Amino acid sequence: MAPRDELYLLPERDLLLRLMRRTGTGQRATVRQLAERADVASGTVGNLVSGAQNCVTHDTARAICRAIGVDLPILFIPIGRAVPVPAVDIAPVPTQVTP
User: Fold this and answer.
1) Residue 13 in contact with residue 54, Cβ under 8 Å?
2) Rounded Cα distance, 74 and 63, in Å
3) How far, in Å, CA of 29 to CA of 9, rounded?
4) Contact 38, 66 (CB under 8 A)
5) pLDDT band for position 95 (50/70/90)?
6) Residues 6, 58: contact at Cβ < 8 Å?
7) Phi and psi for 37 in degrees, rounded to 5?
8) CA-to-CA distance for 52 and 46, rounded, in angstroms?
9) Rounded CA gap, 82 and 79, in Å?
10) What span, in angstroms and rounded, lies between the C-alpha atoms of 66 and 69?
């Protein structure tokens, strides 16, 4: 998985809501405003706020954080491996032989 495809988890949606009430510029941001500033779908932001969705791609997470004015690790946690495992290091899965 490429770093840009990596998923990021929003562990505390309440923190997102608090930061939307007062962004880095001191202004409030609605779901629609945040989505517009971050250039992401308003449904994505709405789903994060409601809890219907808790993971987004790296680019989406970064865009939301920039629009709010916080560093990425403040809101999101990367999930999955930070370093891809080379295919040669992955042990083959044994197959079962049926009689």
Assistant:
1) yes
2) 13
3) 21
4) yes
5) low
6) yes
7) -65, -35
8) 8
9) 8
10) 5
Which residues 6+ apart lie within 8 Å of 59 measured at CB? 4
The burial class, CB within 10 Å (0-12 / 13-18 / 19+), for 45 is buried
Amino acid residing at 36: E
The tokens of 5 are what? 């495809």
Is 88's pLDDT higher than 90?
no
The alpha carbon dihedral of 37, 38, 41, 45 has a sign of negative
How many alpha carbons lie under 13 Å from residue 19 in its C-beta half-sphere? 21
Per the structure block, which two tokens stand in for 80?
């999955």
Specify the pTM.
0.76
For the stretch 9-60, pLDDT in tens is 999 999 999 999 988 778 899 999 999 999 999 999 999 999 999 999 999 9
Q: Strand 7-9's sheet: what is its strand order?
A: 55-57, 7-9, 77-79
